[in-house]
Every structure is written in structure tokens, then in C-alpha cells.
């Protein structure tokens, strides 16, 4: 299947929206169990959902993050190219209309400051690093809640602390520049169809839509931007950890006439961590699907010639 081909775009289908705005959403409460059941159902059906987080402060923060990104991407290319990493897909990337910048270990304030210091060596741009710090904190809180719900829901909460301690966070900011109006040849595809390789991704779009997510029966759902919600998505590493109980959905970005900004917080397995399903998730009905692997080997395979050509990176890399 060529997932970028012209599959129908569903007009009626929408991602499930789950309310995370309740301040009393704490483990052990009936509200928690209710939301947890909804999360499990949405992830089984779609591999993703929209988390509604209605905080008044969000509007302000949303605007600050958006403005920070405009300022960041307006920097000269040479400056942006200082954002390098030894790992693939972690530093500054640019091709066609797409550019992105990455902050590794974005949950650690000093790392965010280092990023700003690298791009603005004179003053370190305190206001941008404060904005990104605040935003990262909010996203990490959401990531931890969702992962706790998932582990509890599959009866493997005894591994929760070990699991949470085995990951790090990468924050990425994306800009998709609008194609010139007179350029009819310009690509409509901002980012080709793929599954994410990490554990969980939390996506956010700024005013301009474009993100499309594929359903199990191969229809594209277009996700509308909202200041009050985040898109939570299963990555291949979580799919492998759960012995395939949740799937990582294909998604892509289609371009319209406007320049589009988006952000993503990725939870990523730490170096040295072996991704392997706990025995509780393997039985006769659910035979082991994947061989244990290290995230960086998986990512390097995805980055290789051979890895780029395969339909499912996870199956090609480690199916039993
Ligand atoms: O820009 C977006 O909305 C999606 C980005 C994405 O899928 C990715 O970076 O993996
Ligand atoms: Fe993605």
C-alpha cells in the first residue's frame, strides 16, 4: 500500500476527544478510571485521540510558543544549523518547504536554556526559553498521565516507574512554508506518511491545519487545530512494548496556502534500554510479535536506505 496515494478523506470521521481538564483527575479516583477506559478505547480504535485541556493560561502560552517559533525560524539558516545532534532526526532539518528544530531533554530547564544560548549567544533569549520550559512542563505532565493510564489499563502498572524512568523527551518545532501561489507544481505534501518511532507523541497545530491521521480502514481524518487540545499518538516503541496491543497510526501533513507551524513532544527510550514486552502481555492468544531491540538501532534502521523503503519499519526491523 502506498499510504500517500489518494485515499478518501473522511468528511465525517473525527478523532475521539477526551476531557483532561478536570483538576481532580488523579490516579485512584473514579474520574481517573473513566478517562482511562476512554483512553484505552480511543487508542485501540485509532492509535490516537485529542486531549482537551481547557486551561485559561493556555491561550496566552499558545500565543507565546507560536511567536517564539516565528522568531526562531526567522533566524539565518547558518544560526539554525548550530542545532545539531549525534542522533538522526534530533537537530535542525530542512527540505523543500519543511524545517524543524529540536530540543533534546526538553524537560530539563538547563537544556532549554542551552538551546536558546546556542542560537542567541549574546543574551540567551530568556523569554523564549521560559516559554518553552513552561510548555514542556505541561506536555510532560500529560505524557506521564497518559502512560500511567495505559500501563494500568493493561495490568502492567508494576513496571510504570521503571518505564517512566527509561525515557527522555525530545521537543520539536516545525515550520511548513506555504508554497508560492503561482507554483502549480509545488508539492501539496508537507510531510510524507509515516508512523512515529518513539513511545508517545503529543502534537499541536497552530491555527493552520494540515495533519491527517489514517484510520484502520485506510481513511484519512483531518485534525482541526485547537488552542485547547493536544493530539496524543502511539509510537512504534509503545506498540512493541505492548506486544502490538495498541497500533501506531500512519499520519502525514498536507499543505494548503498558508505557512503552518506545529510542535511535537516525543517520549523516547533511553540509550541502553531494551524494548521488550513484559511476560504479562504474552500468552497463547497473544504470541510474542517482536524481538527485543534498542531504540537507536531501530532509528538507525529507519534512517537507512533499506529502512526507508519498507512499508512497516517495526515489522521489517524486529518481527518474530
Ligand atoms: O507537523 C505535524 O503536525 C506532524 C509532525 C510529525 O508527524 C512528526 O514530526 O513526526
Ligand atoms: Fe509523526
From TrEMBL:
Which terms in the Gene Ontology molecular function aspect does this entry carry? Answer: dioxygenase activity; metal ion binding
Query: Does the record's keyword annotation contain Glycoprotein?
Result: no
Q: Which controlled-vocabulary keywords does the entry list? A: Dioxygenase, Iron, Metal-binding, Oxidoreductase
Q: Which domain of life is it from?
A: Eukaryota
Q: Which SUPFAM superfamilies match?
A: Clavaminate synthase-like (SSF51197)
UniProt-listed Pfam families = 2OG-FeII_Oxy, DIOX_N
Per the database record, which ranges form the Fe2OG dioxygenase domain? 166-269
List the InterPro entries. DIOX_N (IPR026992), IPNS-like_FE2OG_OXY (IPR044861), IPNS-like_sf (IPR027443), Iron_ascorbate_oxido_reductase (IPR050231), Oxoglu/Fe-dep_dioxygenase_dom (IPR005123)
- What PANTHER family is this protein classified in? 2-OXOGLUTARATE (2OG) AND FE(II)-DEPENDENT OXYGENASE SUPERFAMILY PROTEIN-RELATED
Q: What does this protein do?
A: Probable 2-oxoglutarate-dependent dioxygenase that may be involved in glucosinolates biosynthesis. May play a role in the production of aliphatic glucosinolates.
Q: Which family does it belong to?
A: Belongs to the iron/ascorbate-dependent oxidoreductase family.
What is the recorded name of this protein? Answer: Fe2OG dioxygenase domain-containing protein
Originating organism: Brassica carinata
Amino acid at each position: 500500500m502506498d499510504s500517500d496515494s489518494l485515499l478518501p478523506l473522511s468528511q465525517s470521521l473525527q478523532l475521539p476527544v477526551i476531557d483532561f481538564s478536570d483538576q481532580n483527575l488523579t490516579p485512584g479516583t473514579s474520574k481517573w478510571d473513566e478517562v482511562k477506559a476512554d483512553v484505552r478505547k480511543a487508542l485501540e480504535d485509532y492509535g490516537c485521540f485529542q486531549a482537551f485541556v481547557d486551561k485559561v493560561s493556555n491561550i496566552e502560552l499558545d500565543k507565546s510558543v507560536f511567536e517564539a517559533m516565528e522568531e526562531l525560524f526567522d533566524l539565518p539558516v547558518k544560526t539554525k544549523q548550530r542545532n545539531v545532534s549525534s542522533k538522526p532526526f534530533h537537530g535542525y532539518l530542512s527540505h523543500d518547504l519543511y524545517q524543524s528544530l529540536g530540543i533534546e531533554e526538553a524537560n530539563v530547564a538547563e537544556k532549554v536554556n542551552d538551546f536558546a544560548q546556542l542560537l542567541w549567544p549574546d543574551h540567551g533569549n530568556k523569554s523564549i526559553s521560559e516559554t518553552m520550559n513552561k510548555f514542556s512542563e505541561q506536555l510532560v505532565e500529560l505524557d506521564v498521565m497518559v502512560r500511567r493510564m495505559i500501563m494500568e489499563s493493561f495490568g502492567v502498572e508494576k513496571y510504570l516507574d521503571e518505564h517512566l524512568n527509561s525515557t527522555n523527551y525530545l521537543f520539536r518545532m516545525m515550520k511548513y512554508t506555504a508554497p508560492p501561489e503561482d507554483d502549480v507544481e509545488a508539492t501539496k505534501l508537507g510531510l510524507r506518511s509515516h508512523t512515529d518511532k518513539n513511545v508517545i507523541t503529543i502534537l499541536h497545530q497552530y491555527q493552520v491545519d494540515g495533519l491527517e491521521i489514517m484510520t484502520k480502514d485506510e481513511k484519512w481524518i483531518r485534525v482541526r487545530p485547537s488552542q485547547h487540545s493536544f493530539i496524543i499518538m502511539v509510537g512504534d516503541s509503545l506498540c512493541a512494548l505492548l506486544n502490538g496491543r495498541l497500533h501506531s497510526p500512519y499520519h502525514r501533513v498536507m499543505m494548503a496556502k498558508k505557512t503552518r507551524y506545529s510542535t511535537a513532544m516525543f517520549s523516547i527510550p533511553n540509550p541502553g534500554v531494551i524494548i521488550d514486552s513484559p511476560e504479562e502481555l504474552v500468552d497463547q492468544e497473544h504470541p510474542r510479535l517482536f524481538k527485543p531491540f534498542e531504540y537507536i538501532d531501530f532509528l538507525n534502521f529507519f534512517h537507512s536506505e533499506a529502512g526507508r523503503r519498507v512499508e512497516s519499519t517495526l515489522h521489517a526491523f524486529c518481527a518474530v
